[in-house]
């Protein structure tokens, strides 16, 4: 089985020191597994991480070429889609702020609590480090939606979104992984949610933990968690709900990517 981002992340120091050129250890692990980044760029590799290095290198050599090519194509296609848009016009509608640098327009967007600067040809952190292409694709999709209305405050399931049937399985897998990770550890989930800026709410009657995240300004995500009940043989459960207008801002693939990012960040926090 190929090594995953989470497997690698668990072996990293998780200090988010930035010495590898990425803002967080999670971003670095994502780059290594998905983009073929050289593991040695982290000067603080643990023995456990070094033990994985050979395996990950072989994994990178096997499958990255074609994947990189398709990501580059997707990114280019989205940049072409965004190129004719007037960023000044659409900034407010997507909850961004508009600016210009050396005559190049950009918008600043809050993404999982980090400020990202989206130019028409690149996406970077304010200090200039380029964001990984997966995040760039998501942000260009978000901008290209040119969504205008705000969140409605009503919550819907992923399954109720048009054409979601074939993708529901992916969401259920993410929910199951997250539930299994935090089963019997509700306090850990509460702490992780707080670290990610999650806001506790009371929306559903019976869920043990209910938190709203705002990974993108106009895309709130509601996490519902039911703790395991061993006496009743009831496993821990997680459900994600989305704002009634979410499809005005993200397509289904982008929404799943966003949830995957949220789940990874919670497990890494
Ligand atoms: S991966 Fe290593 S260098 Fe990068 S942020 Fe984490 S500890 Fe620091």
From TrEMBL:
Instruction: Note the Gene3D superfamilies from the entry.
Output: Electron transport complex subunit B, putative Fe-S cluster
Q: Which residues form the 4Fe-4S domain?
A: 1-59
The UniProt entry, under InterPro entries, shows: 4Fe-4S_dom (IPR007202), DUF3786 (IPR024264)
Give the molecular function GO annotations: 4 iron, 4 sulfur cluster binding; metal ion binding
UniProt keywords, alphabetically: 4Fe-4S, Iron, Iron-sulfur, Metal-binding
> This protein's superkingdom?
Bacteria
State whether keyword Iron-sulfur applies. Answer: yes
According to the record, the segments passing through the membrane are none
Instruction: Name one matching Pfam family.
Output: DUF3786
Q: What is the name of the protein in this document?
A: DUF3786 domain-containing protein
């Amino acid at each position: 089985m190929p090594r995953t981002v989470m497997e690698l992340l668990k072996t990293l120091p998780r200090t988010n020191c930035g010495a590898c050129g990425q803002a967080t250890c999670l971003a670095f692990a994502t780059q290594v597994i998905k983009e073929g980044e050289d593991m040695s760029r982290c000067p603080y590799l643990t023995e456990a991480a070094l033990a994985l290095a050979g395996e990950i290198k072989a994994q990178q050599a096997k499958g990255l070429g074609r994947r990189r090519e398709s990501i580059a194509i997707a990114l280019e296609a989205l940049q072409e889609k965004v190129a004719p848009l007037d960023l000044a016009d659409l900034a407010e509608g997507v909850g961004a702020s508009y600016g210009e640098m050396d005559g190049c327009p950009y918008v600043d967007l809050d993404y999982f609590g980090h400020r990202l600067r989206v130019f028409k040809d690149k996406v970077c952190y304010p200090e200039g480090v380029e964001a990984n292409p997966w995040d760039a694709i998501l942000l260009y999709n978000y901008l290209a939606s040119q969504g205008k209305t705000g969140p409605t405050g009503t919550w819907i399931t992923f399954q109720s979104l048009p054409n979601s049937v074939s993708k529901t399985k992916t969401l259920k897998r993410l929910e199951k992984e997250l539930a299994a990770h935090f089963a019997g550890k509700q306090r850990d989930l509460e702490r992780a949610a707080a670290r990610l800026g999650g806001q506790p709410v009371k929306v559903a009657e019976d869920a043990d933990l209910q938190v709203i995240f705002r990974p993108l300004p106009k895309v709130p995500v509601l996490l519902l968690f039911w703790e395991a009940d061993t006496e009743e043989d009831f496993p821990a459960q997680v459900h994600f709900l989305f704002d009634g207008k979410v499809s005005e801002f993200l397509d289904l693939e982008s929404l799943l990517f966003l949830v995957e990012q949220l789940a990874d960040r919670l497990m890494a926090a």
